[in-house]
Amino acid sequence: DYSNSESYNVQNNSNKESDEPIDLDDLLPKIGEFGIYQKCLLWFVCLPACLPCGFCAFNQLFMTDTPDHWCKVPQLQNFSLEERKMLSIPRKEADNSTFESCVRYSVNWTQILQGNGTIVVNQSWPREHCLDGYEYDTSEIISSVVIDHMPMNIALELAGPNYRSFVTVMTCIFYTLGLILLSVVTYFLRDWRSLALATSVPFFLYYLYWFILPESPRWLLMKERIEEANKVLQSIARVNGKPFPEDYANKMQKQVLEQKQHGAKEAKTVSVFALCRTPNMRLKTCLITLNWCASEMVYVGLSYYGPAIGTNQYISFFLSSAVEIPSYLVCWVLMDRVGRRWPLCLSMVISGIFCIVTVLLPEDAENETLILYLISKCFISASFLIIYPYAGELYPTELRGIGIGTSAYIGGLGLIIIPFINYLGSSNLVLPLVLMGAVSVLGGLTALRLPETLHTSLPQTAEEGEEIGKDWTYKDCWSCGGPRRAASEGDSYENLDQLELTHAPVLEDEVSELRPIRRSSMKKLVRQSSTLETQRDTDGSLKMTYWF
């Protein structure tokens, strides 16, 4: 009869659910997605570990800084610095207002000083290079080298899927706070030795993390160290005040053994050439790498060029770091509402435009140049936050690691030319900004060719990755956001009471005993629809029966 049939189906579904592959993301909601354990790990371990990154990346900007300098004239040491410059150093012919750095007048100062009359400088005196060393302007910098010859991954893995965007944004913000703190430290420490010690020695305390930082459960499971992984997960459940599923360890042990037995048959060798094997995947790989390279080059280039803009290098570096924080917060909101493609495109194009516009300003417009630079730095910081998750969503699962690694590696190679581009600023202040602006605009425009990944399923295989964006047309350039989810927009993993499965028929004479079972499986159903791992038919429609 009907009741026996329903009972059989419930038991059958229960058995199937027990045979499903176990994912750590399925366990985290049960033991706490973002409980006390994850919060303590994030706020007291992982986020403080982001502060030294900014120190180590940019402290050399001030340690190796070259202050204003002039030729030393031993016979004039009894005069003040300004008097020595006025008497012994010729002015530059270009502006006649600044002094030469490596040239002095070649005259006999001993003989001139023996005269009782006023010394009159003659611009026609012969000149020579510095023979007695240099004198330096110590009004801003006392000493520099020239003068004297990621915890983040663990936080992401231990936080639930619903909180990983928050963790990513917070790590970026704390990295920027490290840059802001660096500008304050360099303002008060002008000696390069003191600066080197202050920006390195305190961070030796991070070696204490060895005793408190947990090992990654995902890595332990991948290495088949089940007992160690269970200890970490049980600690998370205990601190969060959640019960740890007793059957989880047995299921995981069984799954690892099965994967080990069938691993030889199913194992496939994945290489970087798999990214270029099919035409659509090859094009997306090239575009992702181009955008990654452009975004990283412009971000790092502008960061290094910050002290050269404006009248005070410390204030300029402070402002260039502070403008990153609002860009991260705005980008965090836009990515989940507008998508990835258009925010990436607009942020890079707008950043490039403001860089290029600086060529229209006069040479003495230092404040105006600084304002345009800060706007450009704000937008390029947003693109740098988008490109990493966007690339992870475009690459299929089996190629995601090698794909992101390849794009990041090639993007890092582009940084080799950044010092040469910035060096051009010694002759023309805005020339590096124009070049980096052109790179940013080029990268942003090519991002329009990439498919949108918002509200789309993550590709698992290379074949699925090839299908994403395969039917792209020029009309897709102007589309904003991805395809809508099958459920209503108000649906969420937490708000199950308002869930309406409009595509699935409901039996009017449903047995009351089935409701708790259907209710218990509803979270998994909604989660599948929210992460959009649902299979699609050939026409692009969702296979709703796959959910059940």
Automatic annotation (TrEMBL):
Molecular function terms, GO-annotated: transmembrane transporter activity
Name of the protein this chain belongs to: Major facilitator superfamily (MFS) profile domain-containing protein
InterPro entries the record matches: MFS_sugar_transport-like, MFS_trans_sf
Localization of this protein: Membrane
Protein's organism: Leptidea sinapis
GO terms under cellular component: membrane
Transmembrane segments: 166-189, 195-213, 314-335, 342-359, 371-390, 402-423, 429-448
Biased composition (Polar residues): 1-15
Membrane topology recorded in Swiss-Prot or TrEMBL: Multi-pass membrane protein
Region of interest called Disordered, as start-end residue ranges on this chain: 1-21
Keywords: Membrane, Transmembrane, Transmembrane helix
